[in-house]
Amino acid sequence: MNARFNLFGMGLLCAGMAAAQHVDNAEYFWDTDPGAGNATPMSVLDGAYDEALEAIFLETASLPGLGTRALGIRVKDEDGNWGPVFRTIIAIEPSVVTAPEINVTQAEFFWDIDPGPGSGTPMIAFDGDFNSALEAVSLETSALPDEGVHVLHVRSKDVNDAWSLPFKVVVEVMGGTVTFPQIKVAAAEYFVNIDPGPGLGTQMLAVDSDFSAALEAVKGGGIPAPVAAGVNVLWLRARDVNNAWGPAFGIVANIDTTITGTVGVLEEEGITMRLAPNPTFADAGFTITFDRMLHDAMIQVQDGTGRLVREHRVNNLRRVELGLSGAAPGVYIVGVRSDGRQLWDRLVVH
After folding, report:
1. Region 138-167: what's the mean pLDDT?
2. Residue 317's closest CA among 346, 287, 292?
């Protein structure tokens, strides 16, 4: 039997002390108290014990015997003082509940009259892949219904081929011609730390060798000089077909200027990877999917300062699941190294 509980640790209030108290540790036990500090440790939900109020959780690979049990929980402050035991009664029952896998695999829309599940107009996943419980979808219509008030219906299908009930919204189609600007990426550039001005950064290349879409995967080349080794801010921005530059997007990067020569990337051989879900949560982890089988590759996860958080070797695999238990929220860099080449992508952890 497996169980998971989300619990909130109580703040420790010390009368007559001006300094704030922080929760430093937490533990739990069933029925019999083994003594302070001798019970099973609990994990903090955000990965760090640093507040007076902490959200904590416990996971048990096995539960005590069936029946009514007393669950005891206590926390310790930053001075090493254990608080009193908080107890709650929990009934352990024999039935096991298996939660179904919930992923959106398809979505469709229709106007006014329902043509039947699966017969509407297909919708596109914003990230290009229906693989999550929550998906951002987009629809494009080359022709709208007649002028007037209409009802737009949207529904989705899960991994068990079950269609949801339609979500409805009232839309008024008005007369006249509305011209939407053409939205396409025409160029992209990057720079480090100091902005040289729109159009004066180092040019980036489209992965498919053609800037022709509203969403483009881009790649850069060498490090612009002069740049000092260590933590820098790498900025990127794109230009549309109307020659309007968008705002710069910056990430913190730990740059090594001692590397000589050119570092090859797997993408140059046509190999791509996808991180999902992204963003994710530390306790949920993430999955890396490649478009082909990788042989003898090393996967590394680094935090924003370049510190190695996780390392995992794979061989003859296309799909790898990795956990990030205990990782603090932030932006992480996921890299795959194989035969002296490497491919990197960004992962956001909540």
Report:
1. 84
2. 292
Question: What CATH topology corresponds to 266-349?
Answer: Immunoglobulin-like (2.60.40)
Report the mean per-residue pLDDT for the chain. 79
Neighbours of 334 (CB within 10 A): 21
Q: Residues 287-346: pLDDT tens digits? A: 888 877 877 888 888 887 778 888 888 888 888 888 888 888 888 888 888 776 777 888
Pick the CATH number of 3-92 from 3.40.50, 2.60.40, 3.30.1360, 2.40.50: 2.60.40
**65-89 mean pLDDT:** 87
Half-sphere exposure of 264 (CA within 13 A, CB side): 10
Nearest CA among 150, 188, 342, 151 for reference residue 262: 342
